[in-house]
Automatic annotation (TrEMBL):
UniProt lineage: Eukaryota, Fungi, Dikarya, Ascomycota, Pezizomycotina
Originating species: Xylaria flabelliformis
Name of protein: Protein kinase domain-containing protein
Domain of life: Eukaryota
SUPFAM superfamilies attached to this UniProt entry: Protein kinase-like (PK-like) (SSF56112)
Amino acid sequence: MLFEVLTGLEFLLGRGLVYEQLSCANVLVNFAGEVKICNVENCRRSGNMTELSTSFSKMMMNLMDKERAKTMSAGLMHPDRWSDEAIDMFTSITTTPIQKLLAHTFLLKKNQNELQWLVPFVLIAAFHKRE
C-alpha cells in the first residue's frame, strides 16, 4: 500500500503538486487491491515538502501500528512490531527523495494481492461502524 501511495505522490510531484496533508482518510483501496490517493484538490503548487514527509510518516505509523497516535507527532509507538526494514524506511522518510524510497528494501516486499481479501471485511466494518 505504501508503495502505491509513494507512486501516486511521485506522479503528483512530477506535475508540480505537493500533498501536504496526506492521511489514511485520503487513501482508497478498491476490490482489486488497487490503491488511489483521493482529494487531490488539497494539493498545492510548490507546497512544503517537509509537510508532505511528515504527513506520510504519520500515515505510515498509523498503518503499521494499527492505532491512532495520541500525539500529532510522528514516532514509533510499538517498535517491537516493526521489522528492521520498516524502521529504516520510517526513519529515512524525511531525508530521502521519493524515488529512492520506492526502491527501499521494505517496499520491495510488496504484494498487491495481499490486500484483496481484506477489502470486503473493511467495507463491512466501515458500514457497521456508522450505526
